[in-house]
Specification:
The structure is a single chain. Strands 8, 9, 10 and 11 form a 4-stranded antiparallel sheet that branches. The chain contains 6 helices and 14 strands. The radius of gyration is 46 Å and the shape is elongated. It is of the alpha+beta class. Helix 3 runs antiparallel to helix 4 and helix 4 crosses helix 5.
């Protein structure tokens, strides 16, 4: 039989073990309780009117008790006054969040990748727009809200003089050719045609929404208003290659929308006629092989017959040396 003894403070534990049975015995010695200490009370002086005698306190004790009670009351009154003032005072003005075009899962521009945005927090993501929405006029005013109105659309035809100016065939000398073979009319010449037809100030472009900046292009919808009535709607677009080029792309987007609006008025309609395009390219354009002066790369471009190859390209005989 084995005996284990654990002793701690005033208790003792003994464990006896045999082959088949266990026996545990406890011996506990409880600590002796101390007698409560008697708190001395101030001497009691007899009451002059024969009532119950009250403890005898000093004058300093009375002053401290009065000051403590007055401070507690004052603090409670101050807290209650502050709570009432907060309830009565108007809350801070709520700032209305700016409306955005699309902010969820918006594509990040290549020049403003998430890595660049994290390294430079000053870069702003422009995929949600430039926050330049047109001013919405009051419904009660007599002015026309061109952001959503179709006032005057197809109500009356233009005068014969204005129609003749708009439908006048364009001069061959005004048409330009892009290197990829697309012919076009410069945007400034659309403005000249409108000025001849309606006069400066007789027409204008009214934005219909916010400027949207995607990863590589800028787009916005415009309305062409002539003599106080809407005549056409179109969405312009313009590519850009760096964030610094966004303002220039926004201006090009406006000119592109003007060109598309003028299609409804018949201005330079020949440029969308396939037969006219083939005839013009055969008579006024040519194909030229050019070489880049710096990179030495060669390619074939289209240009007018009366134009010359400009830097950084020079004319070559072809892809073979």
């Amino acid at each position: 039989m084995a005996t284990l003894t654990f002793q701690r403070a005033t208790w003792c534990l003994q464990i006896s073990r045999s082959s088949r049975t266990f026996s545990v015995s406890f011996t506990t010695a409880l600590p002796r309780r101390h007698k409560p200490q008697q708190i001395a009370t101030p001497p009691v002086r007899p009451s002059s009117h024969g009532g119950t005698p009250r403890p005898r306190y000093s004058r300093h004790h009375d002053q401290a008790r009065t000051a403590y009670t007055s401070t507690k009351v004052f603090q409670a009154q101050q807290a209650q006054a502050q709570a009432q003032a907060q309830k009565a005072a108007p809350g801070p003005p709520q700032v209305k969040p700016r409306s955005t075009y699309t902010t969820t899962a918006a594509p990040t521009p290549a020049s403003l990748s998430p890595q660049d945005s994290s390294q430079n927090p000053e870069l702003q993501d422009l995929t949600s727009g430039l926050s330049d929405q047109p001013i919405i006029l009051d419904e009660g005013t007599r002015q026309v809200d061109w952001t959503r109105s179709f006032h005057g659309l197809s109500t009356e035809a233009f005068s014969k003089e204005a129609a003749a100016t708009l439908l006048e065939p364009i001069s061959v000398d005004d048409i330009e050719v892009k290197p990829d073979g697309i012919i076009y009319l410069p945007e400034i010449k659309y403005r000249r045609i409108l000025n001849r037809a309606f006069g400066p100030g007789g027409w204008g472009l009214a934005p219909r929404g916010e400027t949207i900046v995607t990863a590589k292009a800028v787009t916005r919808e415009y309305a062409l208003v002539v003599l106080g009535r809407l005549v056409s709607l179109a969405r312009g677009e313009q590519d850009y290659f760096s964030p610094e080029g966004v303002p220039t792309a926004a201006e090009g987007c406006k000119s592109n929308a003007l060109m598309r609006c003028c299609k409804d008025l018949g201005v330079a309609s020949e440029l969308w006629d396939p037969r006219y395009i083939r005839k013009f390219m055969a008579a006024q354009a040519k194909e030229v092989f050019v070489e880049h002066v710096v990179t030495k790369k060669r390619k074939k471009i289209h240009m007018r017959k009366d134009d010359e190859v400009r830097y950084p390209f020079k004319e070559t005989k072809g892809f073979t040396s």
